[in-house]
Fold this protein.
Amino acid sequence: MHALTRELYFITSTVIDWMDVFTRPLYKHIMVDSLEYCQTNKGLDIYAWVLMTNHLHLIVGIKTALLLVTCFEISKSLQARKSSMQFKKTNKKVGRNGF
């Protein structure tokens, strides 16, 4: 087990236009998978978190603020790609175009 970080950061991440995307289990799992990726591969320590219908609150620690920024850039990129693919699949099934 590695030593926990001393500096803690409170982070809030919101969905564009505050859309309630996290009411669907699939999108909740995309978010959780992304957080787990940062824990496993980027050294993110998550002390507390809550996922609401349209935003996320985290209390996290990481060795440097730069690593924190990098971690969330990667995380948001992964979430956007996975969510976009899923939106397209869902829309195709119901015969809609766009998001």
User: Anything to note?
Assistant: The domain at 8-94 is CATH 3.30.70.1290 (Alpha-Beta Plaits).
